[in-house]
Amino acid sequence: MLEFSHDPILAVMACAMAIVAGFTGLSLTRNMAAKTTSQRKIAISLASVALGGGIWSMHFVAMLGLQMPIPYYYDAAITLASALIAILIVGCALILLHFTERSTPMILVAGAVVGLGVLVMHYVGMAGLQLCRAVYTVQGVALSSAVAIALCMLAVWVAYQRRTNLHIFLATLCFGLAVSSVHFLAMAGTNFVAVPQPGDFGPAMSNETLAIGVILSGFVIFGAFLWVGTTYLEGPGAETTPQDPLDVQPVPVDSTLQIPCEREGAKVYVSPREVAFVRADGHYTQVYTYSDRLFCAWPITEAGKRLLPAGFVQTHRSYLVNPDKVARFERTKDKGRCTFTDTDLPPVPVSRSKLKDIEAILSGQIGATGAA
């Protein structure tokens, strides 16, 4: 068995990398309720790279500080595979959180998936060692597995019970603690033996080459950290889009905003207070008031950017609703709809993924019927 130790400075840097990656990834998934499906897919992809890449970077920053009495290096293909595995598994967890009905069991399942990603990344990454081989103990594997899954479930549960800044900060610490604890607990239960011949799965990669890769990934993650950090420094008034429909109640509709519409070829401006709902119509939208149905050149994404901060809610990817005009919210199993005080207006559908959110927002000011 080979004796080994860790460089304390690199160990601290590895922990810092995990915290920064957690903050970046969890921040990138804020305000998802106000995004279109395409925007959500992009945000989830970026968050997956930040979280999965952060798990990988934390591991290999710590491994750069691993000190053994023999030289060793890494299999480049296995090392790359460990990074991609982490990104893909974390991406699966984020898809569960943002494209399924977000219940407490689903949040815990997603947290367990993230914990599995941390574990798989660690042990696949360790398999890439050349000229030495890791020998694991049952106690070490069991303890690191239990800690990974439990702490990642806690981190995701904290982050997604309420999507506030405080919960994201707390979840960041939980995530950083989870990733760091798994690595060092697993290493504490690991022994190393020298291997005379390297494997031939992929090309060899020295510690120096690995350091370059870790520096590049760290640069990207820290750059993204600074980018998302500016949204917090701008102050509470800078971000007016609700972080999640459950976090805030609708604000009064802004009377200063005007929606540019067309009526019989002439341009008119409509106050949001007069609008019952907005419906996507291809690359444009239709604006419904009690007296008119007007054409608007805004696509639904632009309408969402303007109207969601002004107090509207998104009940469906194609509909934005003024909650002040809603007379009743009706729910039957996995379907819902909003009806209006003007009975000539058609009802607006509520998608299954938004049922609980819309019901929570509207129940305080209107009647609600139907069975869940």
TrEMBL record:
SMART domains: LytTR. PROSITE patterns: HTH_LYTTR, MHYT. PANTHER family: DOMAIN SIGNALLING PROTEIN, PUTATIVE (AFU_ORTHOLOGUE AFUA_5G11310)-RELATED. The chain crosses the membrane at residues 6-30, 42-66, 72-99, 106-124, 136-160, 167-189, 209-228. This is MHYT domain-containing protein. Residues 259-364 form the HTH LytTR-type domain. It comes from Lutimaribacter marinistellae. It comes from the Bacteria. Keywords: Membrane, Transmembrane, Transmembrane helix. Residues 6-193 form the MHYT domain. The keyword Electron transport does not apply. InterPro entries: LytTR_DNA-bd_dom, LytTR_MHYT, MHYT_dom.
